[in-house]
Amino acid sequence: MADPIPAHPATVPTLEPHPAAVPMPEARPAAGLDEAFLHERLAAHRACHGCPAPAEVTAWLDDLLGFAFPELARRRLTSLDALRDEAESLRRRLAHLLGECPDAPERAPSLARTFLADLPDLHARLDEDAQAIVDGDPAAQGRAEVIRTYPGFYAIAAHRVAHALLGPGARTLARMIAAHAHRSTGIDVHPAARIGRRFCIDHGTGVVIGETAVVGDDVKLYQGVTLGGLSVRKEDAARKRHPTLEDRVVVYAGATILGGETVVGHDSVVGGNVWLTRSVPPFTKLTYRPVETAGAVRYGA
Fold first, then answer.
1. What's the CA gap between 111 and 92, in Å, rounded?
2. Which residue of 18, 62, 213, 281 is most buried, as measured by CB atoms within 10 A?
3. pLDDT tens column, 125-175
4. Which domains does the chain have, with CATH numbers?
5. Contacts of 269-277 spanning 24+ positions with Cβ under 8 A
């Protein structure tokens, strides 16, 4: 008897489940955070303009200063080729940082080229600052020690870099550099402040120099000095709000000098803890002293 012909296998249709029958994945837990808050933060992150991370800015600044001053370098650059390669790397990284900032990303390449071309002048200014600190501090054992260890020098260096970037319009990066220097040294210098040659900050903790301050050549500040504004009204933002120190002024610890019309004349000395809101002529010496008045003690300059 012949074998039976096998039947053709039946075609079984594949049935897709109704969407309503598919279980939805459970929302991932978020450490107890409210879902509405998470959605708000998601929208904020998506809307935020790209900007470099502070760590990237800090790394670039420190490598720039290490290029200019081997005392601060993470590695020695012992050939011209190594120096050229590092300079090109610094230029590319600066262009990248500027391109991520909202100020003028389309100008990032040209701003980076101009900054690097001006680096010799910036280095000359910082060299003078380092020598001014050596000359002005009996505790300083030499230029290398000042560059390696003095917070005043680091704050001045960061300010000169930030100020050079702010001029052509790189405000965001300039403010980020100033903020890093403030966190690192306790010295708060607005990048727009105009500071002359051979600037010296001794110790430095608590020094504040406001946006419209003008500091002449050969000026020396001690810790806790404030060059601030008398007014904090927003409508005064476009006015000169901070004082002017002319050449060769020395301001000792804790002194506060306020006001955009306040000018400290050249070769003056402002003693510790003095509170000054008016101009003084050149060669003035101001001291803080208690004044006896009718059984009470009044303090003044």
1. 11
2. 213
3. 999 999 999 999 999 999 999 999 999 999 999 999 999 999 999 999 999
4. 51-186 (1.10.3130.10), 193-301 (2.160.10.10)
5. 271/301, 272/222, 274/301, 275/301, 276/243, 276/301, 277/230
